[in-house]
Each structure stands twice: as C-alpha cells, then as structure tokens.
User: What shape does this take?
Amino acid sequence: SQQGEEDPQALSIQEGENATMNCSYKTSINNLQWYRQNSGRGLVHLILIRSNEREKHSGRLRVTLDTSKKSSSLLITASRAADTASYFCAIPRADSWGKLQFGAGTQVVVTP
Amino acid sequence: KAGVTQTPRYLIKTRGQQVTLSCSPISGHRSVSWYQQTPGQGLQFLFEYFSETQRNKGNFPGRFSGRQFSNSRSEMNVSTLELGDSALYLCASSTGGRDYGYTFGSGTRLTVV
Assistant: This one.
C-alpha cells in the first residue's frame, strides 16, 4: 500500500496565490521528503524534513511535519506559473535500503 | 556538478524484445535506485544498488534485472517486453544513507508496441 497519500489530488490557483498540499502516512518515519515533477520529466528533490523537526523552509517553500498526526504539509507561497507541476511526498522505508514510497501526488496548475 | 544522466531519453521497442537502460549517478554517489512510473500505478520501486551489490528489490517479475559497475554506473534490463512495460523509468542516486535526499535523472520513456 502507498505510504504517503497526498491531498488534494489536484489544485488550480492563480499566480500570486499560495498553494497548500498535505501528505498523510501510516508508520513511524525517520524523515519525509517532498519532490516536484514537471510533466514527463524527472523528480526534483525539494525538502527533506527529519522526524525531530517540525518546520523547514526553502525559498518560497515551507514544509511542516506533525508526527503525532502522521502528516506533513507543503506550502508554496506567491506561486508562479513555473510552479505548475506534480508534487509528491516520499518516505524512505526504514527496513528497506534505497526505497522511497511515493504517494499519488498533487497536480498543481498555476495560471497567469 | 553534473546531475544524474539517463540514456536513452526515449525508446520504442516491440513486444518480446529486450531493452537496456543506463544511469550515471552523481560523482561520489554509490547508491542507484530505479523506479517505474505509469499513470495507473504511479511510482514503483524496482531495485537499489550500492557498491555493485543489489541491496533491495521491489515486487517486479524476474524479467526486470539490473547491475551496477565499479564506477557506480548502473544499467537495468527488461527482457521479453510486454505492452504493460511502457512507462517512464527513473533512476535516482544518493550517498547510500537513509537520511538523505535523492537526485533523479530525467528518465527514459519506454514505449512497447
């Protein structure tokens, strides 16, 4: 079964607005990672947040982690058309080398 | 520094043929993982190699295999191709630890006809 489940599945916003997407998971984690994928291309690593961290920032991105609720959120502030992409949360399996478990992703469309 | 390089970018093969995909990781990264991405199944883990050893394997049939060379470059092979093998194949490199992010290549788009 999918470890990370993103919500919503799709999000349509206008440039300048903020976009928030959530990720829920089922088991304990060492860290949780967010990736972006532009249409048909490879994934780009955005942020890794460790289980003992509650919030992390990178430019216009803000990630929070609530281990008690087993959930994480990714906020993109002041969105741009170039932010149009699919966003995935990914969780490394603690018992399994090199394996990231991905959710189905949130498809974000930012219109000018 | 150079990113992860996957070749070829696009590939069209006929059912029953075999295919080999290549991945060159970031210099110094010893771990290479492979994923299959399809619209129906999403991103599925194929296998991971570290220092020429397969450390982990996903739930794929034996037609899917891989290897890693001493320079950390990796190849994956799919034999007896089926229509359902049409997908974007992604490789990712990392240092090999569990607390680091992964750098993905641009992928190989395989179409089986």
